[in-house]
Amino acid sequence: MKKEISILVIGKHEEILAVILRLLNKMENWNATGVNSCEELIKQCSGRNFSVVLLGAGLSVEEEQTVKSYVAEECPETALVPHYGGGSGLLYAEIYSALNIG
């Protein structure tokens, strides 16, 4: 049995977030959850180990920095992947690359 890849996606655009979650959750053994604020991200990460935190579009520079700092300090084993668009092929390639799989 393959190991589950848990992905937390943060993004401000609800429609784009929904598409990303749909694309990720259709992959076998991938489980994606979406949030739209730093506070929600911190709540989701508390006590849970995500394989990847995916940075989506729409965050301010300060919000991106907050996410990057939090993940680096509190979840150092979690890969942080920026994704600002480019289609599903690029999305999957970014995650595979960050996890050194594929």
What is this entry, summarized?
With 102 residues, the protein is α/β, with parallel strands linked by helices.
Notes on the protein architecture:
With 102 residues, the protein is of the alpha/beta class. Helices cover 46% and strands 20% of the residues. Strands 2-1-3-4 form a 4-stranded parallel β-sheet, sandwiched between helices.
Give the topology, please:
Elements: E1 5-10, H1 14-25, E2 30-35, H2 38-45, E3 52-55, H3 61-74, E4 79-82, H4 87-99
Task: Fill in the CATH topology.
Answer: Rossmann fold
Strand arrangement, major sheet: 2-1-3-4
Total beta-strand segments = 4
Compute the separation of the termini in Å: 16 Å
Shape: globular
What's the helical proportion of residues?
40-55%
What is the H/E order?
A: EHEHEHEH
Number of helices: 4
The unreliable regions are none
- Going by CATH, the homologous superfamily would be Response regulator
Radius of gyration: 13 Å
Q: Provide the CATH top-level class.
A: Alpha Beta
Average of the residue pLDDT scores: 90
Give the domain tally. Answer: 1
Strand residues, percent? 15-25%
Alpha-beta content class: alpha/beta
Any idea what the CATH architecture is?
3-Layer(aba) Sandwich
Question: Main β-sheet, in a few words?
Answer: 4 strands, parallel
